[in-house]
């Protein structure tokens, strides 16, 4: 695996200054990574919008349907933010997304919820793991990319809303606990496997984050994924569930 710089390369201009047109980085390897990163983010948000829009129709109440509809709108707003940023970089969003479509679609097929409660749990788990993952990346990336990730996360209302509704559902029907705990464990396992698969296919993760020997990259990647798993366990504990 080829190594990218351990810190972001210098940009052609101070692109994070207000009013300055962003550009792809001059380093072709880092530029390729940025396009891949935004491509997987965009398709993740687009598929999240489609999933939540579809699942909303199974909601037990109109209030719940409206809540999931609002969450779907937020996903689409995130997609548009990434799409507009790619366009400013001179990159077509469909071209950037297309390499990730088969893998992400396959993930969603493997993790199709059995009912509305599993749909809620899936949104809760995947949204949070994605946020953790992009937060871990952001500190190693250029200012323009950090700024976009920060804007997306600051506009994210999903976590608290999903947590509150899941807590209400579990209080109303404690029998859901064992099923949703098991579902949560499956989801986090599938999500981490998916991230590893994309990283291998696109040389997407280790080469940028962990420059150096391949053994060091593997070790650092495992440490990152261990942290993602610990964060997931804490969130499950907030629901009163065992991860």
Automatic annotation (TrEMBL):
InterPro entries: Ferritin-like (IPR012347), Ferritin_actino (IPR059125). Residues 28-210 form the Ferritin-like domain. Coiled coil: none annotated. Residues 1-25 are annotated as: Disordered. It comes from the Bacteria. This is Ferritin-like fold-containing protein. It comes from Arthrobacter flavus.
């Amino acid at each position: 695996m080829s190594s990218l710089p351990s810190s972001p390369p210098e940009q052609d201009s101070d692109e994070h200054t207000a009013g300055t047109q962003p550009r792809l980085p001059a380093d072709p390897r880092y530029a390729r990574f940025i396009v891949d990163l935004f491509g997987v983010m965009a398709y993740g948000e687009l598929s999240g919008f489609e999933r939540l829009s579809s699942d909303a129709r199974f909601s037990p109440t109109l209030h719940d349907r409206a809540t999931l509809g609002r969450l779907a709108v937020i996903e689409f707003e995130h997609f548009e933010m990434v799409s507009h940023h790619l366009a400013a970089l001179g990159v077509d969003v469909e071209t950037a997304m297309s390499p990730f479509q088969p893998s992400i679609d396959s993930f969603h097929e493997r993790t199709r919820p059995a009912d509305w409660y599993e749909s809620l749990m899936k949104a809760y788990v995947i949204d949070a793991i994605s946020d953790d993952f992009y937060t871990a990346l952001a500190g190693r990336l250029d200012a323009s990319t950090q700024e976009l990730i920060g804007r997306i996360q600051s506009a994210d209302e999903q976590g608290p809303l999903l947590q509150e509704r899941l807590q209400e559902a579990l209080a109303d029907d404690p029998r859901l606990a064992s099923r949703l705990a098991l579902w949560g464990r499956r989801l986090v396992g599938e999500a981490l496997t998916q991230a590893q698969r994309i990283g291998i296919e696109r040389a997407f993760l280790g080469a940028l984050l962990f420059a150096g020997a391949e053994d060091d990259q593997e070790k650092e990647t495992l440490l990152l994924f261990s942290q993602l798993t610990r964060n997931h366990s804490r969130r499950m504990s907030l629901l009163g569930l065992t991860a």
